[in-house]
């Protein structure tokens, strides 16, 4: 098996990964290149994992692959021992190709195509969610020995992306009926799952959802089941400056109260938590247009066109309701308070007027000026398209030498990824695992 292909390289840095310095180096060496690029700080994911284990020791992270399916990121999480939340045959295939044990995967899509259920069964991915009797009938046909997890609704009042309109059954009116139906079909239910909403900002809801899940554990026992899995879903913050301390408090408190028995396995489905702050996008101004105010003919509004847009990385504006905050490379813009600011609109490169990134006050920028965008790892790359023929950004992964040495020793030969000796070059060591 391969950790990386010949086309994928991790740059190993002796010391801390300095994102700004790395961006400057890439810009200096690619002045003639009009394509955007990402700097991916692999160590940021490693630290996030360590923080998760420390703050929520009972909750095993099953990374939500849909959030960002970069191979290096997935392989890193596999090495660290994380599980994976997959939603399709394609995601299952990608994770399984890394050598991940099928028991470390949950097929967490309550509405699965028949062929995807059949594929999961063939590769021994047996843990899967459902929220309807029709789904039970499909599973009975294509994977009758599945380990089923009932998805219920318990939605946060505030979330970036609510999910309850599409997935989950009512825990009071529907869940008991579905548990009875599964019992009649001789299907095995092993637990309960919920998802309070992606980008949740209503943390006490986790405690409420865990309490509801415990009631269904009790009901399942009356029906002859012995549930042993609780899936607390996703919704965890991951941007720079955010913390999981508060959400961990509510989850840990509720687990101690309602699930003191440690034999119950608890998992979560973090996505943006792991990847949001690990990715920084760098884009270039390639065109601009100045609008003038009449009658004095003074510049009033400046339109900038950069080399990535809403059909590329900034689809997160439409899909994930992100609010974009560009940062400028030119330090004079930050330090010189006398520089005039203009109402500015930043557009993407395509011919669609919908391709609008943000409106903001900026000093006047020049062609070939760069700007960068932090917190761009979640729901950006997997959803991007090369509409109008514009290429997707390249990704340049970096990791510090000490973390790389640690990771190399974490790749188990039988369960994750087989590593071969890397090829090493000069100051920044190019890693290619053949």
TrEMBL record:
Pfam families in UniProt: Orn_Arg_deC_N
Gene Ontology MF term list: ornithine decarboxylase activity
Annotated Orn/DAP/Arg decarboxylase 2 N-terminal domain residues: 43-276
Transmembrane segments: none
One record GO biological process: putrescine biosynthetic process from arginine, via ornithine
One of the record's GO cellular component terms: cytoplasm
Record-annotated active site: 351 (proton donor)
InterPro entries in the cross-refs: Ala_racemase/Decarboxylase_C (IPR009006), De-COase2_N (IPR022644), Orn/DAP/Arg_de-COase (IPR000183), Orn_de-COase (IPR002433), PLP-binding_barrel (IPR029066)
Cofactor(s) the protein needs: pyridoxal 5'-phosphate
Record's keyword terms, sorted: Lyase, Polyamine biosynthesis, Pyridoxal phosphate
Modified residues (N6-(pyridoxal phosphate)lysine): 66
Protein family membership: Belongs to the Orn/Lys/Arg decarboxylase class-II family.
Reported function: Catalyzes the first and rate-limiting step of polyamine biosynthesis that converts ornithine into putrescine, which is the precursor for the polyamines, spermidine and spermine. Polyamines are essential for cell proliferation and are implicated in cellular processes, ranging from DNA replication to apoptosis.
PANTHER family given in the database record: ARGININE/DIAMINOPIMELATE/ORNITHINE DECARBOXYLASE, ORNITHINE DECARBOXYLASE 1-RELATED
Protein name, UniProt field: Putative ornithine decarboxylase
